[in-house]
Specification:
heterodimer; A: mainly alpha; 9 helices; 0% strand; disordered C terminus; B: mainly alpha; two-stranded antiparallel ribbon; 11 helices; 5% strand
Chain lengths: 217, 295
């Protein structure tokens, strides 16, 4: 493993608070909430794991050397909080073809997922939702929104579709440093509350094909 | 090229600003050295960003130089480097195709000027295309696809934007590791998408007047050359989602000597350009920026 201090970007002489702050800043960057259904989620997850391990290593070594570093410090990023996608997901009672398409989307095999969807003649709400998911992953955000909205209109009671629409309407979520701006014409701080509300519904967004986040565990 | 990818100058440290200017001047000098005097006119902020993004572990070495824009005082200029050379090659390739596009699109007196410029840069283009065959092929292929969509008056904003975004994504293929290729490719895809949409939003009123194709016209229903506030919100949300994807890729890139400037562009510059385009002040602010630069 790399030197835990260089992973966190602090010197070995850094105070406990400085280490905590560095860890917290990095964890905010690579937080799973910023990588919802993102093709780079696996890389972010690796980064997160590396940061968690480095932080744990520093915590342990400082405790052993008699420091006051409190192991009880918990920011809510357990090492296992960031689960790999697609593992053990249940789609009980669902159309077998759609289950297969969902798995393809999770494996980032978008071309095949799109081809399979195009071969289906009957377009129900789930079809629109899955097509929206393919577009979303491709980066075709505008079309993704339109398909999600169609799915939600066809089946208003479906939480998965409704949350996808809500997530998109709110502009999603990503890391911004203090003072950073977004494209809606507001600074990041103004969006704090919105993000808190948003983070809550993100947990459910797109149902089982997403990383479960801490809030729902 | 488009110029939307630039830092918010007031938020740069003085040292960062000097370094940024050094890359800009370095790119201009590299263009002249590799492709002759005429290619200097193609220098732009977008590829200055690219040179910094692709710098990897290169350490910036600078030297004082004179240039036609500053004949009486020397400017601090970035020395030749691998990323600067790549950026210069790509500037010529994309720049030449944009001129070729203009030669076909514009009406008489302007189209003639574009044709002349195209002819003047033909040799430079051939040289650059031989150095970056994959990029040249991608530009040619995607621009042909885009031209076809324009002719068909494609109503899908994403599909039109995808062509330009794919051009930029190709640049990621030049990186060393598989991981870097994915991250850089994703960042540049969404950067391309943002640039294309901003350009469309900026030109909307003019395109409606002249009857030229504009992807927003097919997707939304503008009134008096302007989007309704609801349509604008939808469009900006879409830009925001791309910006999120861009940021999520950006934080996965290794930091380099230009990270301060790159972060400024990503977190402040792009949102500021977006704000200016939608407020209708982009052209004025871009002009002001140019004037200040030359002081």
């Amino acid at each position: 493993m790399n030197d835990p201090y260089s992973v966190l970007g602090v010197s070995p002489q850094a105070s406990d608070d400085e280490v905590k702050k560095a860890y917290r800043d990095l964890a905010r960057k690579y937080h799973p909430d910023n990588y919802h259904d993102n093709p780079l989620a696996d890389l972010a997850s690796e980064k997160m794991k590396e940061i968690n391990e480095a932080y744990d290593a520093i915590t342990k070594s400082r405790e052993q050397s008699g420091g006051r570093f409190s192991s009880g410090y918990s920011y809510g990023y357990g090492g296992s909080a960031y689960q790999s996608q697609g593992a053990g997901q249940q789609y009980a009672g669902r159309n077998a073809q759609y289950v297969q398409i969902r798995n393809l989307i999770n494996a980032n095999n978008l071309a095949q997922a799109e081809a399979m969807l195009n071969a289906i003649g009957n377009h129900d709400a789930e079809w629109y939702y899955l097509m929206g998911s393919v577009y979303w992953r491709k980066g075709w955000m505008d079309q993704a929104g339109q398909y999600f909205r169609t799915a939600a209109t066809m089946e208003p009671g479906n939480v998965e579709y409704r949350n996808a629409v809500q997530y998109m309407n709110q502009g999603g979520q990503a890391y911004r440093p203090a003072g950073g701006m977004d494209m809606m014409g507001s600074d990041a701080a103004c969006n704090m509350c919105q993000n808190l509300i948003c983070a809550d519904c993100c947990c459910e967004m797109m149902g089982g094909n997403l990383i479960p986040c801490i809030g729902c565990r | 090229m488009y110029g939307y990818v630039r830092p918010v100058k007031g938020e740069l440290k003085v040292s960062e600003f000097e370094r940024f200017q050094g890359v800009y001047c370095g790119l201009c000098h590299e263009l002249a050295r590799r492709y002759g005097f005429c290619s200097r006119f193609l220098v732009n902020y977008d590829f200055t960003f690219l040179a910094m993004l692709l710098a990897g572990d290169e350490q910036p070495c600078t030297c004082p130089r004179r240039c036609p824009a500053h004949p009486f005082r020397q400017t601090v200029c970035l020395e030749r480097s691998e990323s600067l050379q790549t950026a210069a090659d790509m500037t010529v390739i994309l720049g030449w195709w944009k001129l070729a596009d203009g030669a076909e699109d514009k009406s008489f007196p302007t189209s003639f000027a574009y044709k002349l410029a195209c002819a003047a840069l033909k040799g430079a283009y051939k040289k650059a295309a031989a150095r970056q065959p994959d990029f040249a092929a991608a530009v040619e292929q995607q621009l042909a696809a885009l031209r076809k969509l324009e002719k068909e008056r494609c109503a899908s904003l994403d599909e039109a934007a995808d062509k330009f975004a794919c051009i930029l994504r190709t640049i990621g293929q030049g990186r060393r590791t598989e991981e870097e290729k994915r991250v850089t490719g994703q960042l540049l895809y969404h950067l391309g998408r943002i640039i294309y949409i901003l350009d469309a939003a900026d030109d909307l009123a003019e395109d409606i007047k002249s009857g030229a194709y504009n992807p927003l016209y097919g997707r939304f229903t503008p009134v008096d050359g302007k989007l309704s506030s609801e349509d604008e919100r939808t469009l900006r949300t879409s830009l925001q989602l791309s910006h999120n994807a861009l940021v999520s890729a950006y934080v996965l890139m290794e930091e380099n000597a230009y990270s301060g400037i790159l972060s400024n562009i990503v977190y402040l510059g792009l949102p500021a350009a977006t704000q200016a385009v939608f407020a209708g002040t982009w052209n004025a602010s871009a002009k002001l920026h140019r004037e200040r630069r030359s002081v």
